């Protein structure tokens, strides 16, 4: 499993498409920084193809005031959860 | 879709930015050259607007800024010959491999994932 | 290439040649074989035909790729131009002891190799 990390919003950057195209069937995607906008109910559809493997960082959601606006398909993790995801991964790939 | 045969290697550099406009492409190519100079097996993946870096006929910037086409030609001297591009990115730009300076192999998504999985270190630029 | 500052000058045939702190040319266009010879004399080196042919390979490399090669591509370029007998790091180490990629680039009037040990 490879952990992909995305820090751009799908409404302002198309890099999410490359991230999705580069993911294997077991890989996970973590939204951080502006990337957490992708967790919004209106945006999460962009990540339908990786349903169940989409994560968002709680601290960034809170900072953006988006905590509570997340789509149900998004798994919210805190920094400890981020560390755990990293430990479970063979490697990480950043998309920015 | 089946994954095509892609090589394993030490370092995969993903180039997502076009020539000029920013230094991302040059920095990514420099990282690849350094790794190769140290004997690492390096592969390149051109993705998104990065596929534009492969186009024939690139030149200097209007103020004489160095282009990247000479550096692309130099990759072979560093034994960097494992070159790939995201086929979807190229198609979205309405371009085909006929327009490219180097024989990068177009990959579909399952093969891109296999390429990433097969390299110890993946650097995105 | 933007050049670094001038550290000192070398006088060659009545011309003043600016060198940077590491002895590389500040203006790449200043290079002539006489400049290379003067740089070599200053460093206590004698340039034989075997040295000159490597310097020419380097100048061709730079003209084509707009960069100075690290050791591995230098070995490859020398092998391609001068044959596999000479395309070996041992040969280059003998001609340009210490660091062939850096020393030979300096004498050939190229910038310092960027991605070099």
Structure in words:
The complex is a heterotrimer of chains A (96), B (125) and C (117). The model of chain A has no long low-confidence stretch (mean pLDDT 97). The longest helix of chain A has 10 residues, at 79-88. In chain A, helix 1 links the parallel strand 1 and strand 2 (28-31). Chain A has a single domain, classed as Hypothetical Protein Ychn, Chain: A (3-Layer(aba) Sandwich), CATH 3.40.1260. With 96 residues, chain A is α/β, with parallel strands linked by helices. Chain A has helices at residues 15-21, 58-63, 79-88; strands at residues 2-6, 28-31, 54-57, 75-77, 91-95. With 125 residues, chain B is α/β, with parallel strands linked by helices. Chain B has a five-stranded parallel sheet. Chain B is globular and about 40 Å long. In chain C, helix 2 crosses helix 3. In chain C, a hairpin with a 2-residue loop joins strand 1 and strand 2 (15-19). The longest helix of chain C is centred in the middle third of the chain and has 17 residues, at 49-65. Chain C is globular, with a radius of gyration of 13 Å. Chains in contact: A-B, B-C. Chain A binds chain B through residues 2, 14-15, 17-18, 21-25, 27, 90-91, 93-96, and chain B through 14, 16, 47-48, 86, 88-89, 109-110, 112-114, 116-117, 120-122, 124.
Please sum up the structure shown:
With 125 residues, chain B is of the alpha/beta class.
CATH topology of chain B: Hypothetical Protein Ychn, Chain: A
* Rg result of chain B: 14 Å
| Helicity level of chain B | 25-40%
Biggest sheet of chain B, strands in spatial order? 4-3-2-1-5
Q: Report the portion of residues of chain B in β strands.
A: 15-25%
User: Biggest β-sheet of chain C: count, sense, barrel?
Assistant: 2 strands, antiparallel
Whole-angstrom Rg of chain C: 13 Å
Beta strand count of chain C: 2
Mean pLDDT of chain B: 93
Number of domains of chain B: 1
Q: What's the multimeric state?
A: heterotrimer
Quote the distance from N terminus to C terminus of chain C: 21 Å
Q: Give me the side-by-side strand order of the main sheet of chain C.
A: 1-2
Give the SSE string of chain C.
Answer: EEHHHHH
Helix content of chain C: 40-55%
DSSP helical segment count of chain B? 4
CATH architecture of chain B: 3-Layer(aba) Sandwich
Structural class of chain B: alpha/beta
Report the CATH superfamily of chain B: DsrEFH-like
Shape field of chain C = globular
Q: Which term fits the overall shape of chain B?
A: globular
């Amino acid at each position: 499993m490879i952990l992909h990390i995305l820090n751009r919003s799908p409404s302002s950057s198309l890099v999410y498409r490359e991230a999705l195209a580069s993911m294997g069937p077991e890989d996970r995607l973590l939204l951080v920084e502006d990337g957490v906008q992708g967790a919004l109910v209106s945006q999460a559809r962009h990540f339908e193809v990786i349903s169940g493997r989409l994560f968002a960082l709680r601290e960034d959601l809170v900072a953006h005031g988006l905590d509570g606006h997340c789509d149900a398909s998004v798994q919210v993790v805190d920094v400890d959860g981020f560390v755990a995801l990293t430990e479970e991964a063979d490697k990480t790939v950043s998309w920015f | 879709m089946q994954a095509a045969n892609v090589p394993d290697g030490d370092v995969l550099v993903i180039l997502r930015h076009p020539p000029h406009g920013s230094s991302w492409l040059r920095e990514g190519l420099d990282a690849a050259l350094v790794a190769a100079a140290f004997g690492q097996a390096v592969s390149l993946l051109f993705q998104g607007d990065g596929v534009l870096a492969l186009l024939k006929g690139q030149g200097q910037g209007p103020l004489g800024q160095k282009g990247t086409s000479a550096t692309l030609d130099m990759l072979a001297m560093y034994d960097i010959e494992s070159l790939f591009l995201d086929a979807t990115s190229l198609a979205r730009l309405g371009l085909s491999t006929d327009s490219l300076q180097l024989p990068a192999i177009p990959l579909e998504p399952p093969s891109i994932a296999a390429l990433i999985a097969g390299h110890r270190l993946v650097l995105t630029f | 290439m933007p050049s670094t500052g001038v550290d000192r000058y070398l006088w060659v045939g009545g011309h003043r040649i600016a060198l940077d702190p590491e002895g590389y040319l500040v203006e790449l266009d200043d290079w002539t074989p006489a400049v290379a010879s003067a740089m070599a004399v200053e460093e206590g080196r004698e340039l034989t035909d075997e040295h000159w042919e490597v310097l020419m390979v380097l100048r061709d490399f730079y003209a084509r790729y707009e960069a100075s090669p690290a050791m591995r591509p230098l070995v490859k370029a020398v092998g391609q131009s001068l044959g596999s007998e000479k395309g070996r790091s041992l040969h280059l180490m003998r001609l340009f002891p210490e660091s062939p990629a850096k020393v030979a680039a300096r004498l050939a009037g190229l910038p310092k190799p960027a991605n070099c040990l």
